[in-house]
Write a structure and sequence with these properties.
CATH class of the largest domain: Alpha Beta
Organism: Ideonella azotifigens
InterPro entries: AmpC-like (IPR050491), Beta-lactam-related (IPR001466), Beta-lactam/transpept-like (IPR012338)
CATH architecture of the largest domain: 3-Layer(aba) Sandwich
Protein name: Beta-lactamase-related domain-containing protein
Pfam family, one: Beta-lactamase
Number of domains: 3
Keywords: Signal
CATH superfamily of the largest domain: DD-peptidase/beta-lactamase superfamily
Largest sheet: 8 strands, antiparallel
């Protein structure tokens, strides 16, 4: 899933800078490996420095060692390393990277896929990110980040197995979230007062959104802000659908995806106020049929753990993304019972949509025990959240959401042209709807944000939910990175000194964010209708801080470099693809492939095009030859492109292998 991975990697790179490094005198690879193996696992997160004095945080459980000018961090699983190397005398960035690879492995064993500029940040300049072309069967990602500070280069090589990278993504964010040049102190807005959002300051935000739309090619963005209990702005830019004249406005519906999670936990807070349950009530006490693949983990899950991303349950989305046609809420709960944790309870941040779905369905069952769990959840959300807050255009009904003033989803095709996205795929969230099936508008979400800022009170001063139950959702349940914690469907970010509470949402062609600064009475919402909207929504948070506190201008450059890197990578991938698919490869495929977890694929030729029918959706396919000699088939449907199937053989059976970071699905020919 190259496009999906590119987006997620881009977010990690923004938050954690991607794996940085240090090198001077070369060390043979064997010496580096021995150094890492000989080190003892760290008993706690440990503030550390590179040989040049650049600061970072080494995570608990990792092995930390230094040999010469190389600083090594090895993940607990072994074989996945972050190598930080300081290069004092390199002539330029290329020379610094070459020196780092010489120290680590003699030279880079993988061909360079793409080198992209990265915006200056946190005292680092002349930054560049390099991504190397690995083969799917290697199941690892390799990259390097080179940047300059204090007259020297720091290179970070990340050589990480995919499973480790996803499982320990929060720890990687810890490493890079505090990787700062020697003597540098990050900008902080702690103790400062937010400026009024005057027309001049609002013009800065509007200009930012307009320029970001041009760079990302997103067709439409709606956004709005409140300050000190008053609406400052609510409106939109661009169009609801490409080729159509209707404009985006503050009442345009967008799919808000995972922002639904925070609203789901608000429904749970109402039930806590009604004393129908507590945050510490065992999940099985409320719904005895609730179970996970691990009985031990099942027994530990309290209500507050259902949506904390802290139980060790991994991201495992392909099973419902590819097999949703006949999936019901009850079936979604049964699917959760087949899934195994991959880290200890409370040990690591691991995001699980099925677990979040369980939170909503259990809450719905508590509210309306006589109803089927899907219907009960829908009714509980309407009665306890949407109606009391006056969110009249907010719905969980996919069909109803398509009527009237609704934005359509868009995504780039394989040639980088923004086009209509595959809408059917967004139906996949319906059986998992507490995790992300909400549709809403800027005006409606601002009502929700205003209530959060008012700590549970409505505009007329009446208490809607108790302050205690509301704020419990923000309490940290697990660490995401050095300055970021996850509660119950809400993140609290203090990277710039002042807390920002927020959550984002991402579905095909829809990317959104809602955020508020509790200490300053400011809240904002941004909704987009195009892939790469994730760039806009993530950098909008930074831009808002710049506008409120006269911060260093970083967001504009970050959007420009992230968008360029994305489209450059898409262009590189296009050169590697054969479209239509290689007929010699297509001729050797079976007519049908099956896997119990992800379903069946019907294979056909339509003219000269190779075509896969997944049942729920279909796509033309491309082929790509990988460096290790294997062949990949890749989906081309906009919004769900880059889903990779490796062609293979198991005994006398032809196979297709599909992977996410921590799971593998082998589809057998029939």
């Amino acid at each position: 899933m190259r496009q999906a991975r590119t987006r997620m990697l881009g977010e990690l790179t923004t938050a954690a800078a991607l794996l940085l490094g240090t090198v001077g005198a070369g060390l043979p690879q064997a010496a580096l490996a021995q150094a890492a193996a000989a080190a003892a696992p760290l008993a706690a997160d440990t503030p550390s420095t590179t040989t040049a004095g650049n600061r970072f945080l080494a995570p608990q459980g990792w092995k930390l060692s230094q040999r010469g000018s190389a600083t090594l961090l090895e993940a607990p699983e072994g074989g996945s390393l972050v190598v930080l190397m300081d290069v004092a005398d390199a002539a330029d960035a290329d020379a610094a990277v070459a020196a780092a690879w010489a120290a680590y492995k003699g030279s880079a064993p993988w061909p360079l896929r793409l080198a992209s500029p990265v915006a200056a940040k946190d005292g680092w300049s002349e930054r560049r990110n390099l991504v190397y072309q690995t083969s799917p069967n290697e199941e690892r990602g390799v990259s390097a980040l080179v940047q300059r500070a204090n007259g020297a280069w720091t290179v970070v090589i990340a050589d990480i197995a995919n499973a480790v990278g996803e499982k320990r993504g929060a720890q990687l964010s810890q490493i890079f979230g505090k990787l700062l040049p020697k003597g540098y102190e990050r900008e902080s807005f702690a103790g400062k007062k937010a400026a009024p959002l005057t027309p001049e300051r609002m013009a800065m935000l509007s200009q930012f959104v307009q320029q970001a739309m041009a760079e990302t090619r997103v067709p439409g963005v709606a956004f709005g802000l409140v300050q000190d209990g008053k609406l400052v702005f609510a409106g939109g830019l661009g169009v609801r659908a490409l080729g159509q004249p209707e404009k985006v406005d503050a009442d345009t519906r967008f799919q808000i995806a995972s922002n639904t999670k925070a609203m789901t936990t608000l429904m749970l807070a109402k039930l806590v106020d009604q004393k129908k349950m507590g945050w510490d009530t065992p999940a099985t006490q409320l719904l005895p049929s609730f179970k996970l693949g691990s009985p031990e983990t099942t027994r530990q899950v309290l209500v507050k753990h259902l949506i904390c991303a802290c139980t060790g349950m991994p991201r495992q989305d392909l099973e419902w993304l590819l097999e949703f046609k006949d999936l019901t809420p009850e079936g979604a709960m049964k699917l959760l019972g087949t899934m195994q944790p991959t880290s200890g309870f409370g040990e690591l941040f691991q995001y699980s949509n099925p677990m979040a779905a369980a939170a909503g369905y259990i809450g719905g069952h508590v509210a309306y025990p006589a109803l089927p769990i899907g219907q009960a959840y829908d009714q509980a959300m309407q009665a306890l959240v949407f109606d009391p807050l006056g969110m009249r255009r907010t719905t969980l009904d996919y069909a109803a959401a398509q009527v009237g003033n609704t934005a359509m989803p868009h995504a780039p095709d394989e040639d980088g042209r923004m086009v209509a996205a595959e809408r059917r795929m967004n139906l996949s969230i319906v059986p998992m709807r507490p995790a992300g099936a909400g549709w809403s508008t800027v005006n409606d979400v601002l009502k929700y944000v205003s209530m959060e800022l008012a700590e549970g009170k409505l505009p007329d001063g009446k208490t809607y939910v108790s302050r205690e139950a509301l704020l419990a959702r923000r309490a940290p349940q697990v660490t995401v990175s050095t300055d970021l914690t996850y509660g119950m469907g809400l993140e609290v970010n203090t990277v710039y000194g002042t807390p920002v509470v927020h959550h984002g949402g991402d579905m095909i062609g829809y990317h959104s964010d809602m955020m508020w600064l509790p200490e300053h009475g400011v809240g904002a919402v941004v909704l987009t209708n195009g892939d790469l909207g994730w760039v806009i929504r993530s950098q909008f948070r930074r831009k808002l801080l710049e506008v409120l506190f006269d911060g260093k201008p970083e967001a504009d450059a970050a959007v420009a470099t992230q968008a360029k890197a994305y489209y450059d990578d898409l262009a590189v991938e296009r050169k590697l693809l054969t479209v239509p698919a290689d007929p010699a490869v297509a001729a050797k495929l079976a007519k049908r492939y099956v896997n119990a977890a992800v379903g069946a694929i019907e294979v056909s030729r339509i003219g000269n095009r190779l075509h896969f029918d997944f049942g729920e959706f279909d796509s033309d396919m491309a082929t790509r030859q990988n460096p290790d000699g294997t062949t990949t088939l890749s989906t081309l449907v906009p919004g769900f492109s880059g889903v990779e199937f490796v062609v293979g053989q198991k005994g006398d059976k032809r196979t297709l292998t599909l992977r996410d970071a921590q799971h593998e699905y082998v589809l057998m020919a029939q």
